[in-house]
Amino acid sequence: MKLDRRKDLLGIKDLRREEIDQILDTAIPMKDVIKRDIKKVPTLRGKAMVTIFYENSTRTRTSFEIAGKFLSADTVNLAVNTSSVQKGESLRDTLKTIEVMGFDLMVMRHSMSGTPHYAARCTKMRVVNAGDGQNEHPTQALLDMFTIKEHKGTLENQKAAIVGDIHHSRVARSNIYGLSRYGCEIRVVGASTLMPPEVEKLGVKSYYSLEAAVKDADVVNVLRVQRERQQAALFPSLDEYAELYMVSPQRLKGAKDYVLVLHPGPMNRGVEISSSLADSTQAVINEQVTNGVAVRMAILYLITGGKRVEEVAS
Ligand code: CP
Question: Which of 54, 57, 286 to mutate to test the pocket of ligand 1 (most atoms within 8 A of CB)?
Fold first, then answer.
């Protein structure tokens, strides 16, 4: 199975390694398009794409929109807060309304896990999951993997530490599913209240000590503390969280010399990551954002039926 044979992209858990490879390989010529003076190829001319975000976003929504525009698709954002969703229109009716306008593809973010999967069953449009609750954020994991591969030359057998709010993190889950396809040693580290029960069943090693988790690490992926998803106070204060789990150059001394530091954004500087680390050459946070456009271009291209990378490069 290749991605160009699927109707939807809903999660990394379902993807085979060959599909991930196809996306990452296709993102390379897409990144070249972004670097051109004229950032436009006719690949998706005549296709229409809508972004529907029931949760806030800067990077994912905007990068999908510009990715579609660079590929010459017609792109529209449905602003949920000023839409008829606010008059009580159901998700199913909203989707049908959008579908009959002639859209081919929908990019959806929702606070409830599984909503894009439900949407994919309700509509003929292709559905790409832009983050669903605490479940998955597949395109974030793919751009993270693309960034790691660019820097390390391979995804094989990397020692990767994922630090922070593992329990609430769809980014962590998608990264775990993705990196485990390449034989990586995946370590998760955080406070016990931020660790899902039985996390080791996902094939990871869990740690409570940041220093132990990052020892000899090739990659450290720092997660945002998601205050909006915490019903109860899961740690005493942000200061105390930072004391134990804020990743900084000092705390990375035991990692490999060329350890790569990722963060999906948006950052809480001084909470989960120090400003000195975020602004250092070890951190590739802005590159991740650029790569997000390239990877999303690859996904839009492949999911709408594109097969040959040469089509893009020409
Ligand atoms: N990383 C990420 O999903 O960022 P946004 O919420 O800004 O899209």
Answer: 57
